[in-house]
């Protein structure tokens, strides 16, 4: 069986979720299965990331480097992947993508073009006693888990949630071969003229290992400044509840929850967030949750590993001072 991982770059850097997708694929590969990584590159900087992939355990890395791939359009990306797949000795049976903005958009398109089954946002993968691969997904705002198996024989396309699989580690021994695939892009239906980033953060929210999130309790836009300072000291990113976004304290790009981003960091620090079910839907699978809230009955404490009842404007500076002095 041929597995294919679609590797994604952002700002010339390989996304960590691509390495996690390699690890997820490896978890369910049987003897004789092969793994190829397809890297879509929009220039030399992206293409150079192939060397990082080659030492993480694939059998080969195929690079499709074309200027049209510098900016995401679903038609060009899907066509590039299908062209690269033709360069493989065997038609792929399993496609693995990160559950990123691009992965979410591309996977169903790819599945439709291939006549394949699709599973979105897998947080676990295992092979059952019957040899069928089963994917675990979170449902109902994370309150239930389902296992989904696809019919044997059919190809499938799966997206994996960032931060849910350990990234494939570097392996000793010779790196996998890297080769290029030819690609003649289809006539463009859409031309992206500009990409406007409303929020620029050093760490991508969905891949952040640490998130410091603020809610309506931060009271005003400036209230996010200590949270940003704490996040930066911890090498993390700033997130927000919808309450904070609706109040205009921060951009909607930071929103975490049912209608925002889904995150699974190692550490989630919720500051002045009540813990509505729609917020929990996006963060309750974080590994360690710390809640800072003035109200001891706030629902966020029901999911928190550590709870601090107090004023965030006193607690957050204490944490910052502690980190600076150590
Ligand atoms: P509040 O509920 O107002 O809570 C503020 C908290 O701050 C309180 O608990 C208070 O005790 C505490 N506080 C106040 N001052 C301080 C202080 N100085 N120090 C410490 N604590 C303090 N919400 C999301 O977050 N994400 C979503 O994706 C989302 N999607 C939704 C989708 C739908 C269809 C609907 C209906 C709602 C959605 N919501 C979502 C909104 C959600 O229901 C809540 O309204 C929202 O999460 C509340 O935000 P909040 O906790 O910041 O504000």
TrEMBL record:
The keyword Flavoprotein applies. The keyword Electron transport applies. InterPro entries: DHS-like_NAD/FAD-binding_dom, ETF_a/b_N, ETF_a/FixB, ETF_asu_C, ETF_asu_C_CS, Rossmann-like_a/b/a_fold. It comes from Cohnella yongneupensis. Residues 3-199 form the Electron transfer flavoprotein alpha/beta-subunit N-terminal domain. Keywords: Electron transport, FAD, Flavoprotein, Transport. It comes from the Bacteria. This is Electron transfer flavoprotein subunit alpha/FixB family protein. Belongs to the ETF alpha-subunit/FixB family. It holds the Pfam family ETF_alpha.
């Amino acid at each position: 069986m041929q597995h294919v991982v679609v590797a994604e770059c952002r700002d010339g850097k390989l996304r960590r979720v691509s390495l996690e997708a390699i690890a997820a694929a490896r978890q369910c590969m049987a003897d004789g299965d092969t793994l190829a990584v397809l890297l879509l590159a929009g220039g030399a900087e992206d293409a150079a990331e192939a060397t990082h992939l080659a030492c993480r355990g694939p059998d080969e890395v195929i690079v499709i480097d074309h200027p049209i791939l510098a900016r995401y359009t679903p038609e060009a990306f899907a066509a590039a992947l299908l062209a690269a797949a033709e360069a493989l000795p065997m038609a792929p049976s399993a496609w693995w993508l990160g559950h990123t903005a691009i992965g979410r958009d591309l996977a169903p398109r790819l599945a439709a073009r291939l006549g394949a089954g699709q599973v979105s946002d897998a947080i676990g993968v295992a092979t059952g006693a019957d040899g069928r691969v089963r994917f675990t997904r979170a449902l109902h705002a994370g309150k239930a888990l389902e296992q989904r198996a696809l019919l044997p024989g059919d190809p499938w396309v799966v997206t994996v949630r960032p931060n849910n699989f350990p990234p494939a580690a570097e392996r000793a021994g010779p790196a996998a071969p890297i080769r290029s695939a030819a690609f003649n892009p289809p006539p463009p239906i859409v031309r992206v003229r500009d990409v406007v980033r409303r929020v620029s953060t050093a760490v991508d929210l969905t891949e952040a290992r640490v998130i410091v999130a603020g809610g309506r309790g931060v009271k005003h836009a400036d209230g996010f400044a200590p949270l940003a300072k704490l996040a930066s000291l911890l090498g993390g990113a700033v997130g927000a509840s919808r309450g904070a976004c609706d109040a205009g304290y921060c951009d909607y790009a930071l929103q975490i929850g049912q209608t925002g981003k889904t995150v699974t960091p190692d550490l989630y620090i919720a500051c002045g967030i009540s813990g509505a079910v729609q917020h929990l839907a996006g963060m309750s699978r974080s590994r360690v949750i710390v809640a800072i809230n003035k109200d001891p009955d706030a629902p966020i404490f029901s999911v928190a590993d550590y709870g601090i009842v107090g004023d965030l404007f006193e607690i957050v500076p204490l944490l910052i001072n502690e980190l600076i002095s150590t």
